[in-house]
TrEMBL record:
Species classification: Bacteria, Pseudomonadati, Bacteroidota, Flavobacteriia, Flavobacteriales
Molecular function terms, GO-annotated: hydrolase activity
UniProt keyword Hydrolase, yes or no: yes
SUPFAM superfamilies: HAD-like (SSF56784)
Organism: Oceanihabitans sediminis
Signal peptide: none
Keywords for this protein: Hydrolase
Coiled-coil ranges (or none): none
InterPro entries from the UniProt entry: HAD-like_sf (IPR036412), HAD_sf (IPR023214), Phage_SP01_Orf1 (IPR016769)
Protein name: Hydrolase
Length: 141
């Protein structure tokens, strides 16, 4: 996989990495830890993207660290980003969002990895590099 194939993946925690037991931490979902570690070792950037905050967020981060998962950022697009609700949106930048609340429900970690590792073998539409507005206008003449 080359640099242009690396993705930024926003990963939900409760119901996706672990069974939903909020505010407690549920049992890890089948293949969740192994898949996240493999995605990380493949060079993808993982962002923990969760409703959790405060001590409950700290517990989720520590749980993941104890399993060998280090996130590039937590509830932000990049590590240094500071949230200021007066000037910024809570929406983060990611190529794909992995969440149990997707339309159709969560597909499972085995299928998540297969779709990311070999997008030609699955119907997932991985993001394309964005083009400028002008290229879009030229295309639709």
């Amino acid at each position: 996989m080359n640099l242009k194939d690396k993705l930024i993946l926003a990963i939900d925690f409760d119901g996706t990495v672990v069974d939903d037991a909020y505010p407690k931490i549920g049992k890890p979902k089948l293949f969740a830890i192994e898949t996240l570690k493999k995605l990380q070792s493949d060079g993808h950037r993982l962002i923990l993207w969760t409703y959790r905050s405060g001590k409950y967020l700290d517990e989720a981060v520590e749980f993941c660290k104890s399993k060998g998962i280090e996130f590039y950022a937590i509830n932000s697009s990049f590590p240094e980003e500071k949230f200021d609700e007066a000037t910024k949106s809570r929406k983060i930048h990611a190529d794909l969002f992995i969440d149990d609340r997707n339309i159709g429900g969560f597909i499972g970690w085995g299928e998540v990895y297969q779709k990311i590792a070999d997008p030609n073998a699955s119907p997932i539409n991985l993001p394309k590099k964005k083009k400028s507005l002008f290229s879009f206008l030229r295309k639709n003449r």
